[in-house]
Amino acid sequence: MSIQLFIVIAYIVLLFAISVYAKKKASSGSTDFLFASRKLNTALVAVNIAGLAVGAASTIGVAENAFQVGIAAGWYNAAWAAGAAVMGLVAASKYRDLNCTTVPELFERYYDEKGRIISVIGLITIQVVITSLQYLAGGAILSSLLPEVFTFKSGMITSAVVFIGITLIGGLWSSGLSNIVSVALIYLGVLVGTAMTITQQGGLAVIAAKLPAGTDWFGPVGGLGLATIAGWFVVMITQTITAQGPVQIACGAESAAAARRGFLWGALLIFPIGFMCALMGLAAKVAYPTVQATMALPKIIMSLGPVIAGVTLAALWAADVSTACTLLLGAGTLFAQDIYKRFINPSVDDRTYLLINRLTILGIGGVTLWMAFNAVGILKTLLIGLSLTTAFTLVFLCTIFMPGLCRRSSAFYTTLAGMAALLAWQIIPGIRIFAHPIYLEWLVCVMTFLTVAVIDKQKIAHGGGEPVVGAEIRVNDIHG
Question: Is-above-0.90 flag for pTM?
Fold first, then answer.
């Protein structure tokens, strides 16, 4: 117990030490705090997107799913990797060249004010949902690692204090630098944990022989179905292009080339972690068949001995830290830039603006902790929430590649239709004719976008229209 507690405390101390150092780099103003002075090199972009991707859903959530459907749960991380690769190839350099701050800001440049308002509501909702799940996983990890020190709830509270504290201190610099440690620890812990788990149980053949009949545990599709796995890829590719976390990382890159290369290298880092966590979930199914699925990964790791268990679970907690910090920062940026600075106080000075960002992060941290106490099903909840990015991605891609189809009201009505479709999916079982809500989202959003293109005759301005009050930086032409 003392060894495990020492490992956790040492990791927390290291993270705060990095954050204090990062504070010096982020002390000059809001651009330093929110976008790391726009100086993230290729390596920092790569570890940041990997740190964002490999969080609660990619570790605890994948093992939870594998416990029920097999190793095919690892395709979730493969889908995240595909999303990062597409972002690198299609959009990362565009965002960096634009020097924009948020997707809602971009929407108002090209569309209208109400498009900005509805998009910021949707994006903040997504950030809040995903952040709350990081606390849930953090509580599971700490309560498994140190049951005499943490209950599930106190583990969530402790996780929240660390996540929020690190973000408040150093912003994106803090997240970026701490991700170097976190991603290294994640790889070390998960690699060693997977190898020892398989060896301890006698190898993959022994694990396969002991799994209950009725599910293709090691099949490429497992108990999921091809439509579900394809849905994951559609969700992750969709959300990576317009969710605030990836956008903020791309905007923080030192150049368009660094943004592009960083996302491509990040995709390679993300890919293997899911299948390793899925293997540990299967091992837990054999060793602890009646354990709560969410606890599958922490439970199996605790059987590895104090030092390995401490390092591996600290690695999983590191995954939570890296994800939650970027999410909290993104949520703060969305509120401060697209609500406070745009509509409440357009003439705010930089010092006050930075304070508003920090207060927003603190407030959202409290709200998301409350939500975590009521959350169930990490992966399922996250994937439904991320489906909401469909409208934003469709509008962004059409703005970049098919501006002739875009109308001034396209962003508002497409986003509104996407929100309505997701709400209907939740409350009207009869419309669930697809394997995943993302398919319904794309169908509804594309139909709405094309309908608006026919009805609305007012096209968007080729260069993004007139400058908008409250926006930080402008460019002349996204297409040129």
Answer: no
